[in-house]
Amino acid sequence: MRGLRRTATAAVITVMVASAAAVVSAPGAAAQQDRYSDVTGGVHKPAIDALGGTGLFDGTLCDDGRFCPTDPIKRSTMAVWLIRALTDADPPSVQDSRFADVPAGQWWVGHVELIAQLGITAGCGTNPLRYCPERPVTRAEMATFLTQTFNLGPGQPAGFADVDDGSSHAASINAIAAAGITAGCSTNPLRYCPERPVTRAEMATFLASAFVPT
Description:
Layout: H1 4-25, H2 45-52, H3 75-86, H4 109-117, H5 139-149, H6 170-178, H7 200-211
């Protein structure tokens, strides 16, 4: 299952991102071009609009249909986006989870269970086994989620001054850097900001980049 949808839709995502970027940069672009009322411009708009057009964000928007681009992405939402990036359909409904802190009956339980089955996550803690569904995803965790989801190959050390080579996420951070998914968070010195929460807008761009790595 892993990687099937990525292969099938990478070209489509590339075209959609390019088209969205052209609209953003066009003089006098009309307001009706905006897919979400709170995403009217900025570097992340092309990825948000492109992925939104695939239905990837369905059910994970704000209550009033906004995208909430500056909000941190929760681990529960991450599970949904990752599974939809891999497959063309949501998993079957699941009532109970292996994780003690995943509420029974939530519509996204099946997504959390599937990323666990696929080895994308082992949760956030043990005794009891937990997933921390409401916790924001850090940039370090994001790197591991993407590396596991898209089977990214190892990369040479990227040289981020704030990434400890002994960190459990270091190899994944190097992998997404090698794939061109990230260039870090700042320069002089080159940094990655591993503990900083990932915003929903940033995650859209990371995902779009993962579909078509350089």
